[in-house]
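2024-03-11 09:14:02 INFO worker-7 job=invfold-0412 stage=load source=structure_tokens
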């Protein structure tokens, strides 16, 4: 099975896990508790702009849970707002206030509903350390996954604002 966590786009070969009941969602649940899935039962996990919504105290268990459910050659695709890029835009003295406000919302979440809050800010160093601590053997940073039409390729100010990585079990 391939699992798109937090997704909404229906795609052949993929199931969707979402914290909210929406069209095309196959499983209701939270990425920080993948207890409804067996060990080594998932080939690939895709999580675009989901991990930053996990409270800091649940980060370790979340990544360990992802590692647990992935099969022996499994991989996880993770896209998160890249704090290094967002901070660079935010502190640019030439950036208009409207841009800075938009960047701030990308940092802390749009806060449009009870789930749209960011609890953790990611950069490549944090991601490498966290994936490694959970047992992942290799991490690859990529420009694009080319899997779904989502925020992973969002580039409102020229360059993408997302950190896109693939973790290999």
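2024-03-11 09:14:09 INFO worker-7 stage=emit residues=169
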């Amino acid at each position: 099975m391939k699992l798109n966590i937090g997704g909404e786009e229906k795609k052949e070969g993929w199931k969707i896990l979402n914290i909210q009941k929406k069209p095309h969602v196959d499983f209701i649940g939270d990425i920080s508790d993948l207890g409804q899935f067996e060990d080594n039962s998932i080939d690939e996990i895709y999580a675009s702009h989901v991990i930053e919504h996990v409270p800091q105290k649940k980060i370790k268990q979340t990544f360990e849970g992802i590692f647990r459910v992935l099969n022996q050659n499994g991989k996880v695709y993770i896209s998160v707002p890249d704090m290094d890029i967002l901070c660079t835009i935010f502190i640019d003295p030439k950036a208009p206030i409207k841009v800075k406000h938009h960047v701030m919302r990308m940092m802390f979440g749009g806060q449009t509903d009870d789930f749209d809050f960011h609890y953790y800010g990611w950069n490549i160093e944090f991601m490498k350390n966290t994936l490694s601590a959970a047992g992942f053997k290799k991490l690859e940073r990529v420009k694009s996954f080319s899997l779904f039409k989502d925020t992973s390729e969002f580039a409102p100010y020229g360059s993408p604002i997302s950190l896109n990585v693939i973790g290999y079990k």
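2024-03-11 09:14:09 INFO worker-7 stage=report msg="Residues 2-82+119-168 form a domain with the Rossmann fold fold (CATH 3.40.50.150)."
2024-03-11 09:14:10 INFO worker-7 job finished
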